[in-house]
Structure formats: C-alpha cells, structure tokens
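Researcher: Re-running this chain for the archive, since the previous output was lost when a drive failed. Same request as before.
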Amino acid sequence: DLALVDRAFQLASRQPDSPLIPSIELKRASLNGYSSRAEEFLQHSLTIAQARADRYGEASALLDLGFRRLSLSRFDEAIPWLERAESAARRVNADRLRERALGNLGWCYYRLGDFDRALRSLFDAVTLAREVEDESFLYRWLNDIGNVYYRRHELREAVSYYRTSADLARRMNDLYWLN
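Model: Regenerated structure tokens:
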C-alpha cells in the first residue's frame, strides 16, 4: 500500500543516512507504476545509492530506470540505462541483476530490429539465469530468443526455443505465461 510506504519513507528520512531510503524509494516507484512520480523516486534512489557508494543499490536503480522506459516502449531510451545497470551489476557480482539487465537489453534490441545484438544479450542472460538457477526469468529469455529466430525466419530454431520455454513455464505452473 502506497500510504504505508510513504509513511516508511517519512520515518526513514528522519535519519538522512538511513540505509533503508533507497529501497523505500524503489518500492515507492514500483507502486506508482509508470507515473512521473515513479521517475522521481527512481532518480532519488539512484542519487542516494551513488552518494553512498552503494553499487548494488545503484545497479538496482539503473535497472529499474531502464525497465521503466522499456515498459513505456521507449526501447532506445532504455538501452543506456540497462547497459549501465549491467556494468554496475557486473562490478559487484550481482548476477541476478546482471541477468535481468541483459535480458531486457535483448528485448530492447529485438524490438528495435537489431537481432544479432538481441541474441547476444539474450544468450548471456540465459547463461546467467542457469548459473544462478533463476528459472522464473529463464523461460522468458528462452521465449524471447524464439521470437528473434521467428523474426529472422529461422523457424526450426524458433520452435525449439518456444518449446523449451513452454516446457519450463509449464513445469513452474506459470499459467499466465502459457496463455
């Protein structure tokens, strides 16, 4: 609930160096969806993380800033944020954040028609998802690889990735994804 998170922010703000502020700002942004307030909260979280040399918090905020643009279909604007998120996550060995940055970069490149870069990013995301055993995103990246191959008219490869993705989603009982 947004009111509860706003109250948490007010309480945490009483101590300006509170380590909770960046996390609360990220939560406030997610609850505000795609509004301009969400952008404000994400930028604030990024500023605080950078001021505190919190590299994980910085990577997380950069990822969310990129994802926000991706969610608004502003793929070209999302790419620099996601590239910075991937780089920041790599520096602190935050492989789950890095995986998500790479997967979302792959989607951006796919939507912009840069299929070679899309595949490179998506294959890197798949590798990381397997390393950290993140099946909840693995099947999404596999499906996105199928989309790239489909658009390239490489139908055998597309079907293979779609099947692998669907099998994994079915095993995880993700009915939303299967629809």
